[in-house]
Batch of 3 targets.
Target 1
Amino acid sequence: MGTINILGKQLAVDADGNLANRSDWNEDVARELAKQEGIPNLTSQHWTIINYMRKVSEKEGSAPSIRRLTKESGVDTKTLYQLFPKGPAKRAAKIAGLPKPVGCI
């Protein structure tokens, strides 16, 4: 486990670089994580995915897979890849302050 500096705070991260503590997350942290992932601005569609992932994770204990995102979030696969290039579920989970979804490489 390591740490990253976000908004002047040292935050613990897991082996994948995702936040280790859900309580460290807020929307400002999400914006900074998105910038680090090459996403300069979070749009309403980004927030739809981020909030959906956090809701599922809170209820079920883990972030949803890409398949579930496309079926239940209201955002299709092509759009997910445009919003979160190179691994939408993994990158969205990171920005949402969640561990990498089960099954993501």
Target 2
Amino acid sequence: MTGADLCDTPATQLVALIRAKKLSPVELTRAVLERIERLNPTVNAFCTVTPDAALDAARATELAVVRGERLGLLHGIPVSIKDLHFTKGVRTMSGSFIFLDRVPDVDAPFVRRLKEAGAIIVGKTTTPEFGWKAIGDSPVTGITRNPWNTQVTTGGSSAGAGAAAAAGMGPLHQGSDGAGSIRIPSAFCGVYGLKPTYGRVPMWPVSNADYTSHIGPMTRTVADAALMLAAMAGPDEWDRTSLEGVPHDYVGALDRGIEGLRVAFSPDLDGLPVDAPVAAVVTQAVRAFEGLGCVVEEVKPGFADTHDLIRCMWSTHEAGNYAPYLRQWGRRMDPGLVACIEDGLRYSVVDYIEARGRKFAFWDTVRPLFEKYDLLLTPTTSVAAFPVGRLNPADWPQHAWDWLGWASFSYPFNFTGQPAASVPAGFTPAGLPVGLQIVGRRFADLTVLQASAAFEAAHPWGGRRPPLE
């Protein structure tokens, strides 16, 4: 295979080639590093690349193959880590000047597990400052650009992971999602992203965002996401909120089909605005589920309104976590984040506790739908990717920090902790990707993966590549 072929090959196939001694992990890692070197100046997906450490790790994994040692799930496969999460010996800036020189002395649990599974960490991907918004820029790393059109945003906050996956800068990329930060860039960049059930993948330090942040895979194929999740998932003593129990066989059970599932479709979650090109692509994509043997019904979910709730909780969490930095660092922080923090400081403790109670009660308005249906389908976002440099599309309401309007399909399922994925559903007439969101019952990560795989088989997206090359 050429380097280009290797970069476009799914991890599931690469693992098999390495195990069969038909592919060198060193050759694969070099191919990925070369693509990063060539394309990263254009898209700015990686803020830190670790070629020497990656090649050293690749040589060690190759030696293990030669010696016939036991090999991990991801043996020899390049992986990237979002810059919000700790990596031992590799700087973790969180997209902020405040932590420009921070080099952790420990790996986050899921990073440790990826390494134990034989993955090769090639670097850290970009994020907006502290992951506060669904756009791909930060004061430290600048603008991350969409491989499908470098004049439009990747979305965020897993901005670099989305761009890297779309551009073939390795097959496996880790994202995190507190209000849509895996699903939004996956939709905008035309890749697959899964937010597993809360706690399925352990997090440390545990996010101080009240049980809403999830760790998950961002990949070009569903099977690759299943493989990566299998390596990351499971309880860990470092995260007391992690789920007990051994995860399912995500890879082995992936292709069992979804015939007979009851599927709800809500084109607007009872009134959210959706741009016409996005709505048309999503409606067409939903029809595929009928052909897969599902019973599909359009529904009015009747969920409680959470618009004021998310604005309170989002800004107060930002204030609680980062207001202490304002006096020293405010002038070097993202102005939108500063505005968000300042809004959060206006709420009282009583306001926050009342909002927190409403957040937990929100599940009681969502639960009845999932007692009747196995899955819910919606657009992932209200819009396709829009020009870089904007917080909101030009024809949407503008605000100093509030970007949540066009992302309102995603954050409700952070409040509930449910698994939710964004699958590539098609393209707008302007050639921009559109995502279909698949939401499952709590703990039903495997069902979401199976539905994603069935849709991928019926509606393949992998053959189309961004025009970067």
Target 3
Amino acid sequence: MITGAAALGWRLARHALDPVADGDAADVVRRVVAVRGWPAETADLAVRVRQAEPRPGGLEHALATGDLIRSCAFRGGSYVFTLEDAASLLAARTATRVWETARYQQQGQFVVDDWERLREAVRDALAAGPTTRAELGAHLAGIPALRHLADAASRGTGSDALLKPLHWWGVLCFGPTRDGQSTFRLLEGDPGWPGPLDVDDAGRRACLRYLEAYGPATTSHLAYWLSDGLSVPRRRLDGWLADLGAAVTTVDVDGAAMLARAADVDELSAAEPSDSVVLLPAFDPWLLGPGTADPRIVGAARRSLVSNGARTVVWRGAVAGTWRRGRGEVAVSWFAEAGSAPVARLEAQVERLAALLGEESRLTLEVV
């Protein structure tokens, strides 16, 4: 049997939270599979708290060089991935073919017959480099057959529904922000882009990658990630898990049957609990992967607080409090149910956070 504390200790190491890693931004993102891409400074901090030698602007640099991409994924939001993981997750998102439904077409102000013309027009618009929404709309306005889509593309009204399938198909992704405005860049033809993947192959890989980063996990955890997050039909997900056969096994975690990659069982069996404290930004992968409904990570009474974007204090893998920045201080609200606060460890984390943010800070602590 594997204890829950040891399983979380193993996962903390996988996430480069205990210990932190020597790798660059791409290595960190690969470890956690996906990082919420907006706000940009929050995504950057999620990467840097996991690095032994954090490089300011490292995430932005990895996006600029194409080592990482930012695209529309979970629950319609923008996320940062390696190209390999993006290819799998975005292909899995297409399992529903939602763009073929009348409701989705109404939201995007298009009809299915527009797709091929739109795809070609977008390729043309992005061929010279990253393009803003307004520039893309102006390009569509100049094409008689697509003029009716110009307003949706340029103003953002319906543009998410209009353009998201182009993200999922790997036609485009987000480019660098220009004067405060989002841009899109062409993803097709990128040397690192694997190209369109078979949906079922992609789904099986997505299951394994989730277990690699967030295991041991239940089928409910996988459903939260892929069904709730990417709208994959549950029967499709169940089929992918069945197809994986011996690559996935069942392990006993505190008496509960959970799934793990067979390749990880020896490491899990030898894992030790962690006594680490880490200060995490809002919507950190540590929380978004299993979801705030996982009581091992977030107590039920604190779920709404974390879901609404609180910055969290994680002790031994579980949320034990929240933190906020003030003038010269990091104020920690420690949850009473977490027990006595490890003050020395908190002070060390506040010192590290201050170094990451380039400012002097001291710890203030209250129990709530």
